Every structure is written in structure tokens, then in C-alpha cells.
Here is the input.
Amino acid sequence: MGQAAAVARLRAKLNNDDIAWRQRNVILVALGDSVTQGLTLNPALLHEETYHALLRRELARAFPERTFSSINAGVGGESAAAGLARLQSDVLDHHPDIVTVAFALNDSGGGEAKLESFAASLREIVTRVSASGAFVVLMTPNMMATRDNGRVDPKFADRLPAFIERQTSGVLARYAQAVRNVGAQIGRASCRERVFAVV
Here is the structure.
């Protein structure tokens, strides 16, 4: 119910015939870690092929009378707590209309012991962003690795065993579930019309 209400509310806002809104630029801010930042083996893809750049292009196609701008607030190696620390300057000060939040990959290195503190930081991020009036899209972490396929960048070779362990032991899955839980909890609260279900 919360996701459906949020999507309907955003769609209605984007389709609004109000002149003042039609003339407004729609600002998307993507908060997260290296996946959000766009750190890839091909530097040419850094800005054009991040998920939020693709989202901006899809929104622009779907709503051609709007102007969509995206701000990349991703920082490689960062945790949810670090994202919370810079939330005001890197996200809220831009007065965004839509905010994507993508953490857990780095946080999962803390194992089970850090799971609740991760969820607490994420809850605070979502609560503050939603309170600003922006729509929030929570992202679950992408898969890390289940084995060494020989294609891992040599600079990450020493970390690969830990990545495989997090993926195969279920630790990363538990962090992904924590993201879903935060979305569900906040979705049942007063913010429910501005918090999208996790993708």
C-alpha cells in the first residue's frame, strides 16, 4: 500500500497541470557508495551508465514536459552512517524531489554485529529525507561474488575472499533484508506516501 501510494503521488505531481510545477526542474539526488558513484573499470561509464543516470533518462522520456537533473552523491567505500553524516550538505541542501538511497555493501563488512546500527542509520536517512518532502527510493545491495571467476580487478584481489564470504554465508542477504524492513517500517508510518518499496 505504501509503495502504490508513493508511486501514484509522484506520478500525479509529474502530470500536474499547474504552471509553476511544470516550469520546475525535477531534482534527483542519488546517495550511496561506489555503486552510486559509478566506480567501474571503464572511466567513460562513470557518469552516463550509473543507475541514477539511467533513471533520469527514463523519467525524461516518460515526462517530456519536465526537466530532470541528477546529482551524484555517491562516495566509494562509504557506509550508511557516513552517508547520514553528510546528508544535509550533499542531499537536503539541494532541495531534491526524489532521493535514491543505496547502502549495505560496505556496511555488510561489519557482519551481524553491525546490522542494527546500519538499520538505525538508514532509518534516520529515510525519515529525514521524507520529512523534507522528497520521495525516497530505497535500494537493496547488488550481489558481490560467489567465486573467483578470474575477472576481478587485481586491486580488489585481496578483498575477494571476504566478498565471497559475505555473499555465500548470507550476511549480505541479511543486510538486504534490513533495507526492506526499514522501507516497510517507515512505509507504515507517517511517511508512507513518500517512501517507495525497495528495488
Remarks:
- Confidence is low (pLDDT under 50) at residues 189-194.
